[in-house]
Amino acid sequence: MYFDTNIKFLRKRKKRTQDEVAGQLQMKRSTLSGYENSVAQPGLEILLQFSDYYKIAVDTLLKVDLSGLSETQLRQLEQGEDIFIRGGNLRVLATTVNTDNRENIELVPVKAQAGYTNGFSDPEYINELQAFRLPFLSEEKKYRTFQLRGDSMLPIPARAWVTGEYIADWKTLKTGEACVVLTMEEGVVFKIIENRLEQEGVLLLYSLNPLYEPYEIHVNDIREIWRFVHFISHEIPDPVIPENQLVRTVAGLKQEMERLKMRLPGNGKES
Predict the structure, then answer these.
(1) Whether the predicted model's global pTM rises above the 0.70 cut
(2) Domains in the chain: ranges and CATH
(3) What are phi and psi of 132, to 5 degrees?
């Protein structure tokens, strides 16, 4: 049981004194100290008080060592994503941390993506991935980098490394955002999303390459979503030609075609 260490950990995490917490729970400071040091054992009513105060289920306070969770997992709990409160559909993110207990950015290369589709929630599998850190990214968010393949994401070059921010609440995604989406059928894909989760329970996925048709994916088929942050590539993306330059280019091609036609035999010009 972890109740004593958990309530002490949560209090310090929220930077509150024993006097402050005891006052909120309407108990003596010495009583709270007894619970935190395992001198006294709480009854059911006290357990429920702590559960209501920290917004974490009693089972979690008793059975889960909160100090062993990553920052992302702790934030999930604090935002109400508690498996014992919400049921078995909680998406618990497997993650790794460095020696300073700061979260890494794990790398998922193309050759690892088949395994990632099945092992994305397995801490042992995630722990085997290479990891790095980028100092300019927020310490308050969780990131992962995926190497993507195919031409559906052009003008981003194939085999570019795309970094995404982990999104726990998919309903917060805005239509038009680019995301790495993990599904059990297609694995890892990089798409622009149209969020229809509230109305229809689906996302409509668009490729950056307009040659590919958009398609729907049901929420039950989605495993993870990572909002696009940046990409790294050794190739320069194909340039987007400005409209006025495109017009001049087309006009120049037409003129060249006319000159070629005039030189063809039978047009009254030298060949």
Answers:
(1) no
(2) 3-68 (1.10.260.40), 105-232 (2.10.109.10)
(3) -155, 180
